TrEMBL record:
Keyword Membrane set for record: yes
InterPro entries: YdbS-like_PH (IPR005182)
Protein name per its UniProtKB record: Membrane protein
Lineage: Bacteria, Bacillati, Actinomycetota, Actinomycetes, Streptosporangiales
Regions crossing the membrane: 33-56, 68-91
Positions of the YdbS-like PH domain: 86-147
Keyword flag DNA-binding: no
UniProt keyword terms in alphabetical order: Membrane, Transmembrane, Transmembrane helix
Coiled coil feature spans: none
């Protein structure tokens, strides 16, 4: 099973990091569950701002303005988190794994598939309910570009696909 068909192309922000002879196999964005905490803060802040503005509406009108400005700052932080999530990708090619992060400052971490000596995935209770997991990668080298990749969608499928690439069978005629 392929999560990205060979005819599909990676997003333009990812394509520039692929080598000419590489074939992308998997390209996934982190699971939207990574946004649960920012959503909770924005909604909680909205409730707190509404309650506080009703409590202090008669005593100090300028304080109400500050309350709502503080909530707008919280909302701007949320928009930043969503924008950052929208450009973060985990890409697996036929030769390496890439983790691209960052909106203004782009960070690309890479690990060759040949260097991966051990890989496991973990799923928390919320991860099992919402459908995400975390990969833990070990390599032969001392310094690793990345070790843990969290909030990955379809973790079982990704795990099986990556393991079949890292540890190919002797009969690889189906590729």
């Amino acid at each position: 099973m392929r999560l990205v068909t060979p005819g599909d192309s990676a997003p333009a922000s990812i394509h520039r990091y692929l080598l000419p002879h590489e074939q992308q196999v998997i390209t996934v964005r982190r699971h939207p569950a990574v946004l649960m905490t920012p959503i909770a803060f924005v909604l909680g802040g909205l409730v707190v701002a509404g309650v506080l503005s009703n409590v202090v509406v008669g005593s100090n009108g300028s304080l109400v303005n500050w309350i709502w400005w503080a909530w707008l700052v919280l909302l701007a932080w949320f928009v930043w988190k969503v924008a950052t999530w929208s450009v973060d990708y985990f890409v697996i090619t036929n030769q390496r794994m890439l983790l691209t992060t960052g909106l203004l400052t782009r960070k690309v971490a890479m690990m060759p598939l040949a260097k991966v000596t051990d890989m496991s995935f973990q799923r928390s209770m919320s991860g099992r309910m919402l459908g995400y997991g975390e990969f833990v990668l070990e390599s032969a080298g001392q310094d690793q570009a990345f070790r843990v990749v969290s909030y990955l969608p379809y973790p079982e499928q990704l795990y099986l696909e990556v393991c079949s690439m890292i540890f190919p069978t002797s009969d690889s005629s189906d590729d």
